[in-house]
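Record format v2
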Amino acid sequence: MNHITLEQWLAGQNPALAATLGAIMQSCARISDAVALGALVDLHGSADASNTHGEVQKKLDLFADDCLARALAACDHVAAWASEEHDDPTISEDHGNQGEYLVLFDPLDGSSNIEANISVGTIFSVLAHPYRGTTPGDAGFLQPGRKQVAAGYVVYGPSTVLMLSCGQGVSAFTLDHRDGQWRQTRENVQISPQTREFAINSSNQRFWEKPVQRYVAECLAGEAGPRARDFNMRWVASMVAEVHRIFSRGGVFLYPRDTKEPRKAGRLRLMYEAAPMAFLIEQAGGAAVTGTQSLLDMIPDTLHQKVPVILGSREEVELIVRYHADPNENVSSQLFKTRSLFVQPHA
Ligand code: AFP
């Protein structure tokens, strides 16, 4: 494959969008360096602050947030941006009125993993400023995910990889640390429609909704169960890493509606995590739902709204949607009345 650079690839896009994505990717290259240097540059550990969700912020969360904010402030085409780390959007001082785009980002997803040296990532979403010429407010951001102009994530793993879509398929770019260029390493990425691998935080099993109880029980029952095949399970606790695994070999990721915090519909944020990931997944032929609704069709109520997320290999997600449509239909959900999800070894 001829590894064209991101700059060359962006030359085929609308110039304003290319400049906006270029600014985001320059910051992600800086974040990649900081993540790699970590403790050497005193960027490990807590920042002694918490965000709008009450979560403790790490030094690298704040570093990444600042990098992106500075780059977006300098970009002529960005009217405002919203970060998972802040209550309210920031209006660009210089370009608030004329900027074409609104950008949302989770500066460092999975940051609880940093000190364990497990992959973390940046997730971003680009929307058109719907009232261009006026100062953007929250309302401008509250667009359904299907209206995203572009979305992507960067996974800071053994390689630093960008997965990007501007609505015409998904491309992967690897950061070449030798010269700082992002180079295309996959194009028209497709997610296999079938899978034998699922990812869910099983410690929450007692809180899950019934259709998810049923789905996981059937996977765990393996060859002898209703699915008639063995499944593998993974949990990294870093959504970017989970989604990246799905892009490389298929799979399904679930952070379902649960009763752990009854006031919240889920753990993950619609605008900063679910919608951009859903955009990428659908662009690669996969599916992304809440269980009962397509994530991309959800009209957000608030910037920091949380939602259930089920995404990945299309046929598997469709099966889970069918279970949501009729949660009482299958007898295997009855299993939970008598025994644990994890079957005890035979005595
Ligand atoms: P952090 O950014 O606080 O580490 O949260 C990561 C995350 O939002 C998402 O990336 C994971 O899928 C999920 O939380 C992990 O949640 P658990 O704590 O339930 O494993």
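Residues 6-186 form a domain with the Fructose-1,6-Bisphosphatase; Chain A, domain 1 fold (CATH 3.30.540.10).
The chain is about 30% helix and 25% strand.
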